[in-house]
């Protein structure tokens, strides 16, 4: 595929950490949106189009989750859960739009383009997915939002890690690049946007 760019660096395999490798890949990327894939994972044909839809309109992510989980527009419980998530993520509909949040200066250059452009969020990722167990030869479902702990800004780290499903604006990466670490670079990246 001529759209793919292959870069080879002659360094020992463990010499560079995952965060550095991600930053190099983002540096060479030319598109507006960057998507992560794991080479040993399978993705649905509609994966990118659905994730792009959620990046354009973050409220769609909660509608899709509710419809998928309950096969309808949502029960009272799902509506309450969605309202809690919307509140925690500052997307709640008060009739006057979302609540204002204080942004650090480095975020203004890309945040203004979000507000003017086609994008409604800087980053999105999956909160649930299917796993196949080779030992049991069966499919299982992992939903990182299923927890006894109430959804707050400081809980449910499982939702924000797992870099195999990240989709984000290149301009957002330019504002907050990955830390040069081997474990947790994806979690730190997503958390950086939660704090903006």
Automatic annotation (TrEMBL):
Protein name as catalogued: Glycosyltransferase 2-like domain-containing protein
Source species of the chain: Alexandrium andersonii
Lineage: Eukaryota, Sar, Alveolata, Dinophyceae, Gonyaulacales
